[in-house]
Design a protein that fits this description.
Blueprint (H helix, E strand, L loop, with lengths): L4 H9 L1 H21 L2 H14 L6 H6 L7 H9 L1 H8 L2 H7 L20 H6 L10 E5 L5 H10 L2 E4 L11 H15 L1 H4 L7 E6 L9 H6 L6 E5 L2 H9 L11 E2 L4 H8 L2 E7 L2 E7 L7 H5 L8 H7 L8 E5 L7 H13 L25 E5 L2 E7 L3 E2 L2 E2 L9 H6 L1 E3 L1 H5 L8 E6 H7 L3 H26 L5 H9 L2 H14 L1 H6 L1 H5 L2 H13 L1
Parallel strand pairs: 1-3, 1-4, 2-3, 4-8, 5-9
Antiparallel strand pairs: 6-7, 9-10, 10-14, 11-12, 13-14
Helix pairs in contact: 1-2, 13-22, 22-26, 23-26
Protein name: DUF2972 domain-containing protein
Organism: Helicobacter hepaticus (strain ATCC 51449 / 3B1)
């Protein structure tokens, strides 16, 4: 067992020095916590403003809810002082931002976003760069993967957030930086006339306990929006059946047997309450008891009403709500044509019609897989994550479009003289590695031999995992046998659906399993 540093110090130089080490360590932790508090940041801003050659006073800046965290922001304020004064007294500002909780210190319509760092934009309450077509908001487990794959086929670039950081920093603030940088990194793809692609902002996390959540959502400017919804019983079914990956960055040696790889890959996360404590463990099968946790996973799902309220710049009349059933099977192609007209993006190609009828999450949890062999990386990928020249290997919550455009290529035809396996599975490689691979016949043959054994085994495993999925009936039966959980679910669903009920009650009325659930709740009550 590995000994702690404190024990090592005691043995080496004695208790006195070990205590001194522990005190120093504790002080560092306290100092770190202080540095992320709101009042510490206000004090830091007060000192920065008074030290800087900035004509705007600390109290003037606080009046507009400005919280400066970097010196570069003060430098820009000093440089743009005259423009700021003109803007804040202009009729345009008074009409649009007089009652806004986070008014911008500069006129957004006159900004050159290419010259403003994301951190400075955040400090000055500048709205996100408006270089995207629409906002796509809602909950997870509503068919997002499918809609994303269809939008990708129409030329869509999804701008989404990274998972929350573990260093105590604000997830909302980091998400603003993430959105801002993605929008600007892909500016050259989406803005040249005519644009080759279009961007859209995915807002599906509701950061309810983040101190900067209101600011993040307030800095998403007025635009059209799309909300994808689903029968909540179906959502709960998908969440309880969800096959989570321990990591999307796992690398498997080509020497491993398929069984060894699937032993690592096939893991369901069993979240459950042990008394008052939430615990989790990996299992080989999904469990229904995890539904209690999923009902309360408020940052990810069942939060549509509160998320909609938070998007204060978007009007109800600018939001289109669609049910997941409209993007499933034969209805998907027509729905995408309708959305293309509504949001002004390229309509799907008639030649791609069949591709809009497929199930996007067929290989969820088992693909992609990254192999390493003789300093070369080989990727098995579901081809729904490939469009035109883009190969989306990085399938975590966040994707980097530049990598998808530039780094990878499909070598299925090169290795096997066929386009894919089982109509979906392709083999990809980094372009720099392909230059090495194509010159080495022995390595090519070894990779081919391994994959010809592995891919059929992967297809077999996919079918096994499919049999483990729950149905809506399973969810209803479980809720029926757990009365308290059933009533809790009813309250969660009603709050979640308040917004949808106000604009599209017909969608709620069409949900078979939710209506059965409501009838069941009546019986229980």
């Amino acid at each position: 067992m590995k000994k702690s540093k404190t024990i090592k110090i005691i043995k080496r130089v004695g208790l006195r020095y070990a205590l001194a080490y522990r005190i120093r360590k504790k002080k560092k932790r306290i100092a770190k916590k202080i540095k992320v508090t709101h009042w510490y940041k206000i004090l830091k801003m007060f000192i920065l403003v008074n030290k800087a050659k900035c004509n705007l006073s600390f109290f003037f800046l606080r009046k507009y809810n400005i919280l400066i965290e970097c010196k570069a922001s003060l430098d820009l304020i000093a440089k743009e002082y005259d423009n700021i004064k003109l803007w804040l007294t202009s009729q345009s500002f008074l009409e649009k931002y007089a009652n806004h909780p986070y008014p911008p210190l500069l006129n957004p319509k006159k900004l050159d976003y290419t010259k403003i760092p994301a951190e400075v934009a955040w400090d000055l309450n500048l709205p996100l760069p408006p270089y995207y077509q629409f906002v796509f908001f809602g909950s997870h487990a509503t068919g997002n993967r499918g809609l994303e794959s269809f939008l990708r086929r129409c030329g869509g670039l999804n701008y989404c957030v990274q998972p929350p950081l573990l260093n105590g920093e604000s997830w909302a603030k980091e998400s603003y930086f993430c959105y801002f940088k993605q929008i600007m990194r892909n500016y050259h793809y989406t803005m040249p006339p005519p644009p080759l692609y279009f961007g859209y902002l995915s807002v599906r996390e509701y950061m309810f306990n983040d101190k900067y959540k209101d600011k993040l959502y307030a800095l998403i400017p007025k635009t059209n929006a799309l909300c994808l919804v689903r029968d909540p019983i179906g959502m709960l079914k998908s969440y309880t059946s969800y096959h989570g990956r321990p990591s999307f960055t796992q690398v498997f040696e080509l020497a491993l047997s398929p069984s060894e790889i699937f032993e690592e890959l096939i893991r369901y996360i069993d979240w459950h309450f042990d008394g008052k404590h939430l615990i989790w463990e990996y299992t080989k099968y999904p469990t229904l008891r995890t539904s209690a946790f999923r009902l309360n996973q408020y940052d990810a799902t069942f939060h549509d009403t509160d998320l909609r309220k938070a998007l204060i710049n978007i009007a109800d009349e600018d939001i289109i709500c669609i049910d997941m059933s409209e993007i499933v099977g034969k209805r998907a192609f027509e729905t995408m044509n309708t959305l293309a007209k509504a949001f002004s993006f390229p309509a799907p190609k008639p030649s791609d019609k069949e591709k809009f009828g497929i199930k996007a999450g067929l290989y969820e949890g088992v693909l992609p897989i990254k192999f390493a062999y003789k300093n070369i990386h080989i990727y098995l990928l579901d081809n729904v994550y490939c469009s035109d020249c883009r190969f989306y290997i990085e399938l975590g919550q966040f994707v980097e479009h530049k990598n998808a455009f530039e780094h990878y290529q499909d070598i299925t035809q090169f290795l096997f003289n066929q386009d894919n396996f089982y109509e979906r599975i392709i083999v990809c490689i980094e372009k720099k590695d392909f230059e090495i691979l194509k010159e080495n016949k022995k390595v090519c043959d070894e990779i081919k031999a391994y994959l010809l054994t592995f891919i059929p085994r992967l297809e077999e495993q996919r079918k096994i995992e499919e049999t483990k999925r729950f149905t809506e009936k399973d969810i209803l039966e479980y809720l029926k046998s757990h009365k308290d959980l059933c009533l809790e679910a009813k309250a969660v669903f009603e709050k979640h659906l308040t917004f949808l009920a106000s604009v599209r009650p017909d969608i709620i009325e069409s949900w078979k399993y939710y209506q059965e659930f409501l009838a069941m709740c009546e019986e229980i009550s």
